[in-house]
Design brief:
Blueprint (H helix, E strand, L loop, with lengths): L13 H20 L12 H6 L5 H14 L4 H6 L8 H15 L1 H19 L4 H34 L7 H6 L9 H23 L5 H30 L5 H12 L40 H16 L6 H13 L1
Helix pairs in contact: 3-7, 5-7, 6-7, 7-10, 9-10, 9-11, 9-12, 10-12, 11-12, 11-13
Amino acid sequence: MTTVEVERPAPPTRETAARETAAREASAREASTRGGSGAPAIISDLFGALTRQGMSLVDVTWEQQRLHESRRWSVVDLLSAVDIDGLTPVDRNLVWNAGRAELTTKPGADRLERQADAECRRWQGRNPTVAAIMQACGTWSRYWNEEEAHHETAFNRLADLSGMEKVPDETFIEFRQVFPDDDMLRTLTLLAISEITAAVNYGQCQSVITDPGLRRLFKQVAADEIQHRNYFVSFAKALVDSGEYHPKDAFAVAHLFLREDGEILGSARERMEDRDTHVNWWDHLEADKGEGGFLPGGVEKKEQLVLGALKKITGIEVHSRDEVEDTWMDLIGS
């Protein structure tokens, strides 16, 4: 065996150490106050913010709070702008489906908070930066839960006001089943793709809705889903940037969605899995016969957005579902 001598850098002088400490403190002060005058935004490079910029969890939480407050909206106000008596059969069917789909989101947010905290504790003594990323993710889940509560209550209240079939308590409880735990990078990638699906679906709905108030509601919810996607991409990217999570897991989830007859097709798939752990209403959208029979599609747009999310998370660019599978296979073997 050959022994290689590695030249070690000389220990820093007291003056050098003082300068480095001052630079870190200045960077932290700048990071903690940078949002005060600028527009609120998601921290897209969370790993860099926690390491190179020296941001603390208090700083990150402040940025989350600023963005959340800047995007708050009122369910009561938006519903008051909808002409309930003027809703068409298509409008009513879209509202009915959206209400049931949104009922299944709270279990995902509850699971994310619990799983992120557990992952934080797992990394706390091994990699403090990853622990901080997971705590930032779990902390943000409270905002996700609140915003999704707006979606759920808005659509189900509107369905109720327009005389549509009310969600039975048994169905309500069934739809609250908590999703099973998985690898954290896989979980965040799946959630990002789920938000892409929802955002595109709501965008498709806007194209056929006639009532301006209802169209505005769907537009607002779609904008929320895109913001949620961006948060999930940010957290997932930070895990990959940390070097503790392998990009192959992000590609594995993308392949699950983009493969032939994959999850991205939603209720248009030829075969549905029998799940006894949770409910995904996008797999079971119901279209009324006749006038109310519109169902959202937009599969090509969803695929392109998934490929874009993969690039942001992993830094690896692919251009088709076949390339997703090929890259996944290559990463498994690496």
